[in-house]
Amino acid sequence: MNRPAFICFLFLFVLTAASSAAGEKPIKIGIVGLAHGHVNGFLRSDYQSSLEIVGIYETNQEVVKKYQERYDLDPKLFVTDLPAFLDDRKPEAVWVFTNTYDHLQVVEACTPRGVHVIVEKPLAVDQASAERMAELAAKHGTYVLTNLETTWYSSLHEAYRLAVQENKLGEITKIVSHFGHAGPAEIGVPPEFFSWLTDPKLNGGGASADFGCYGGNIITWIMGNQRPIAVTAVFQTNKPDVYKRTDDNATIILEYPHVQGIIQASWDWSFPRKDVHIYGRSGIIRTLDGERYDIRLERREPPAERKAVSLENPLNSAVDYFSAVLRGELDPANSLSSIENNLIAMEIMEAAKLSALRGGRVAFP
């Protein structure tokens, strides 16, 4: 082969290889349910770059019409028979936006077919359902992953790096988490979302379930997936005229050897919060929002506010992260999304419900 021909061949080879890498086939995914408001965030995201929606399962035709028109979705995508959809269109994974109670039946339908499942937080309504989901995932070699918004907060990862990996705070003594807002009625969630959020069977509770799961998830992560030795909780309903069957204010205390974890979850705050304070013998780190945090290491110095370094792809996006996991590029074990972490978070919430009901401390076996 002469030199010009060789150069031409080499150029075409590199171009083809680059095109092949850039044009990797999107993962076939199904959307199961449209009752969870977080589906809007998914449909507004750049999911098309890595995911192909092959069907959307929803039986409420009013809700179907709303989302079809809002996002100009092909009517042929919508289905009302989940098993038939899984068999006919063969998605590789499903992303679940149902009420929390239905997570288990979706996992029961998907895992025997080898279909991975991503659910919106929390993993399940109770510990028994969560354990059954984990059992099915292990039996059939599939992922059951949980999406929590705070997983993609760079401030939280920076706090973890400084406090846990670099030990900047010295020995950790207390972790306090705050999650909540004014309430689903007050912020105007859509009716199909409100109806199950305020149903203790379908949601697993009220504010305690809706926002307590964040604290259980994050504190478990910071504590290296260590289970607490006991849980004490107080649930209240401050607005019984609005939330007739669920709590709207909850405080949960987790006991570990030499560490306390405190989860404050509320539908009765004047502004939304998703922040975590980590206390050590040498300092304090407080996340302020998804990007900002402050740190105080000297007794007489005021806290220094900082902006966390942006997370690198795919750790900065739910769509990119789960796509990488489904392609086998990342191992989710013991991550914030993992079944290992979220089983412990569910065990914490189960103990919290029992503590609030009995009015006392619940020791872990």
Walk me through this protein's architecture.
With about 375 residues, the protein is α/β, with parallel strands linked by helices. The chain folds into two domains: about 5-145, Rossmann fold; about 150-310 and about 335-365, Dihydrodipicolinate Reductase, domain 2 (2-Layer Sandwich). It contains 13 helices and 15 strands. The chain has helices spanning about 5-20, 40-45, 60-70, 80-90, 105-110, 125-140, 155-165, 185, 190-195, 200-205, 205-220, 320-325, 340-360; strands at about 25-30, 50-55, 80, 95, 115-120, 145, 170-180, 230-235, 250-255, 260-265, 275-280, 285, 290-295, 305, 360-365. The chain has a nine-stranded mixed beta sheet. It has a six-stranded parallel beta sheet with strand order 3-2-1-4-5-6. The radius of gyration is 22 Å and the shape is globular.
